[in-house]
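Human: Not sure, check this?
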Amino acid sequence: MDATGHIDDLGSFIAASPSSYHAAAEVARRLDDAGYATLDERSDWHEIVRPGAKLVLVRDGAVIALALPAQAGPATPFRILGAHTDSPTFKLKPKPALTSNGWLQAGVEVYGGPIIASWFDRELEFAGRLVDRDGIVHLVRTGAFARIPHLAVHLDREVNTGFTPDKQRDTQPIFGVSGPDVLTHLAHLAGLSSAHDVGGFDVVTVDSTPAARFGADDSLFAAARLDNLSSVHAGLTALLRAAPGPAIAVLAAFDHEEIGSESRSGAAGPLLATVLERVSSALGGTRDDLARAIFASWHLSADAGHAVHPNRPERHDPANRPIAGGGPLLKINANQRYTTDAIGAALWARTCDKAGVPFQEFVSNNAVPCGSTIGPITATRLGIPTLDVGTPVLSMHSARELCHVADPGRLSAAAEVFFTGLP
């Protein structure tokens, strides 16, 4: 896929994925259209997991897909691209109905580490899942529905010299002056008669502005949730294009990375380990076979990274200065916040060379410590050799992020080569 086709499809994927639950469902839908069979965690896998099978499993807001080569056996290694489906945002509280001075509001709490100021004065939608009292899950989204309003400059003369929003007082969005409360509205969208029919919900706020290309040469791309739907989409499109190789190709898109990954659908949970164990067992493998497969496997932890900011270049390393349009990042950290080592770096160089795409190293300024990814978590839990990569972006954790139109497609092209087990 060319850069234009890839970036347009990324925009469509983001539009279809306002929450982690929608993202997992959209990945599964596309794979179902491509002939992937659904794995049921409650079923015996020995009949469905076989050489040549293409399979997909959804657990809450996480999704794992596997493409087994025709010669797959008990000790066949895995080539895993790991990413995450969640993004920093605000999440509805259990009793979300609020009113204040004639305004209807929704009670929310901060999820992850958003740039809070970026969420003000833009039209937001609510999206996620409702679970009715019978245990049936309903995916819902409102479209443009709410807004977190700034205090006018006339009422806050210091707004441009030191705006620090109060996370409780200042972030509760408004959505009207009359009508049903937010949970009742969501219940009606799900086809339920009232909010009383809702047994539970996981609903977040989402920037409702569509993704857009812009700039003098149309080379810039802005969208919500590039961190990290750009990596989920790159892995998905690569998996769909990749020719069968000697390894089992795996896309593992986890939830809850932005809050530490410690959940049953997060990278720190047992999901991936359980899937790999069950696949090896269904192929006739022993624990020794699985250990040999793990030793020969690779994990590509794909998560958005930082391009050099033109207005604050001093925040970046003075020598390693990745730019938008320069290709995907190889992320390196001496303290293993990223897991790339010399062997992984050499593998990535060969992979990008085979794919015909440039890449660039990212390392943090020593005075500006970096974040982390699912890479160290997966390497620690499973012992799989891991390297960290990603698309360079600006405004990470903003309600709306920015990248170059060419870089997501280049990440996908490199991932395609990685999945084949070459080089």
